[in-house]
Amino acid sequence: MFKKILIANRGEIALRIIRTCKEMGIPTVAVYSSADRESLHVRFADEAVCIGPASSAESYLNIPRIMAAVEITNADAIHPGYGFLAENADFAEVCTEYGIKFIGPTPTQIRKMGDKITAKDTMIKAGVPVVPGSEGLLKDVKQGKKIANEIGYPVILKATAGGGGKGMRVVWSDEEFQENWDKARQEAKASFANDGIYVEKFIEEPRHIEIQIAGDQHGTVCHLSERDCSIQRRHQKLVEESPSPFMTRPLRKKMGDAAIAAGKAINYEGVGTVEFLVDKHRNFYFMEMNTRIQVEHTVTEEVIDHDLIKEQIKIAAGVPISGKNYIPTMHAIEVRINAEDPFHNFRPSPGKILSFHSPKGHGVRVDTHVYAMYTIPPHYDSMIAKLICRAQTREECIKKMARALDEFIIEGIKTTVPFHKRLMKNEQFLKGNFHTGFLNDFDMGERQEGE
Ligand code: MV4
Questions:
Q1: pLDDT in tens, 229-263
Q2: Can you give the CATH number for the domain in which 433 is found?
Q3: 350 CA distance to ligand 1 centroid (A)?
């Protein structure tokens, strides 16, 4: 097992990783920017090294500074968390060159899923269903229009270097093709320095359902069931749950098998997530694969009762996994508490938290690095806490979540708590009736006293 793990991240996930390391008896090193001196991940790690100023480029994204912290502390493994360097194949490669274990997949596995056309092509060869569309990159508008007419409008243009919604354009007719093509290329070039574009059929009102998988160094891959992440706004997930209210036993079997085939196709090592679009007829299509631990891993932990960070560390140390697939026997929901004002278009609301009381009680979990009198720096992600509830059924879980949200006191900044309170009373949400466009016309109503 590892002698010391450096956590190349901040916030709740850094703390989450430190907790598991402690339980496993592995000493930890936190790295932090000067804006994060007062964060709990710095306090709870065994050692902490300041790696630079607030700007991510000069701290959490700065590979030489992180490697310097590894060297002075003698860590033998790095956990990258999510975001920052978690899916940076060059970073994983540098770790290997230094003889440091990167807790995650290999650089080759990361690269295969990082380029969307390569990923899609790999999935086709593995027999995983994909959305009909171009085979590889589009050469020009003429070829794009030809394929669009073959598969039928509407179509969607996507950047091969994209993901998470950037550089995507929906096209409804030949007339609109050229302008969307130009915009998609410009956006892709500006965001990823790669203007490669491909086209596929636009699936209307899909659900986003993802399958958690785990693969070990000995070729075993299993799945840990699904999460429904359809409740999102501008590609930012706000609520995740497991199981999906849309799931059926035969669909889970098919999607689980497809996700395992995806993992096996790239000899996947680590925990990972295979994202699918699911249409109203329950057809499912591979969308992308995330080669990291995700924010919403907690709902899976709650329904299968396993620590996924512990699994990551064991897999990285070469321990074989059982190979058993897991089916949830309970229901879990996670809501993201962001420092944003839901009454004003979710605009960021950083600043000092004047009072903080988190909900408690049976089946309630809060993952956070913040506390009363803590100042949320404006430089990073706005997520300040995750509230996760678990109960026997979805209905009970929603009731528990509503109760827990009522107990949440966060004063001094605006948060997404009022949004979640309304969602837990929303008729369509209660029925499990939603897709990825659900929040486009969600009405927050009036701010109540105390909100
Ligand atoms: C799509 C799609 C419809 N049809 N692809 C958005 C993020 C990126 N990973 C892929 N995305 C989509 N791809 C086809 N062929 C709709 C989306 C999409 C979406 C997907 C998941 C969750 C939320 C979304 C919101 C808008 C669009």
A1: 999 999 999 999 999 999 999 999 999 999 999 99
A2: 3.30.470.20
A3: 29
Dump pLDDT digits (tens) for 96-125. 999 999 999 999 999 999 999 999 999 999
Ligand 1 centroid to Cα of residue 105, in Å, is 25
Share in percent of the chain as helix, strand, coil (round to 5): 35, 25, 40
The model carries a pTM of 0.97
Range of the domain at 142: 132-201
Ligand 1 and 102: CB distance under 6 A = no
Residues 192 and 323 in one domain: no
Is 394 a known active-site residue? no
Among 58-67, 147-156, 182-191, 318-327, the range scoring the smallest mean pLDDT is 182-191
CATH number at residue 17: 3.40.50.20
Contact (CB, 8 A) for 114 and 89: yes
Distance CA 393, CA 442 (A): 25
pLDDT number for residue 167: 81
